Task: inverse folding
């Protein structure tokens, strides 16, 4: 029986589940983009290195754009411009530290420009790190496969291109004051789509 007039006969409908924190869906999209770009860069880097090893002969450069851009296969024990030739294991540790830093920063990324920059940086860093870990002369001391010769000044690879482009984007974003992540405020809740666009 109804206890008092106006009281409903059925139980009240359950309360809707709490909404996800503002911005969580908006942050997943840039992270997904970051991972996708990193995977594409890594696959492109490793595929082109496999082709370079199969098709090129060390010491026999192939002109692509005259003598300005050539395909010239080398195995680089050092960093850019062959710096640190005798310290390959140190460069491996530095690469691992950079990788950890990028992964930590990636957890905070909340917009597409930073996702693109960090994705290129992550893919390039992993690409060269793979060489240092699995190629001759041994784990942690492996030589990076380089094959794109720029004007005879230095020889690099696809991972290096991605890293240089990422560095340029990072500098541009820093100069423009674009934040890596946004503070979780009520005002931000309405701007997630804008930041992702």
Result:
């Amino acid at each position: 029986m109804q206890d008092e007039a106006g009281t409903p006969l059925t139980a009240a409908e359950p309360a809707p589940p709490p909404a996800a924190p503002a911005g969580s869906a908006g942050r997943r999209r840039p992270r997904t983009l970051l991972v996708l770009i990193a995977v594409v860069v890594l696959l492109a880097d490793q595929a082109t290195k496999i082709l370079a090893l199969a098709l090129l002969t060390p010491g026999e450069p192939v002109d692509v754009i005259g003598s300005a851009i050539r395909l010239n296969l080398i195995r680089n024990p050092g960093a850019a411009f062959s710096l640190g030739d005798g310290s390959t294991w140190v460069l491996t540790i530095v690469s691992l530290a950079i990788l950890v830093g990028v992964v930590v920063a990636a957890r905070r990324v909340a917009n597409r420009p930073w996702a693109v920059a960090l994705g290129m940086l992550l893919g390039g860093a992993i690409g060269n790190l793979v060489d240092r870990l699995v190629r001759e002369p041994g784990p942690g001391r492996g030589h990076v496969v380089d094959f794109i010769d720029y004007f005879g000044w230095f020889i690099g690879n696809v991972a290096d291109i991605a890293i240089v482009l990422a560095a340029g984007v990072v500098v541009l974003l820093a100069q423009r004051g674009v934040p890596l992540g946004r503070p979780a405020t009520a005002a931000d809740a309405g701007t997630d789509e804008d930041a992702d666009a």
User: Anything to note?
Assistant: Residues 28-178 form one domain. The chain is about 50% helix and 10% strand. Residues 17-22, 81-85, 183-197 have pLDDT under 50 and may be disordered.
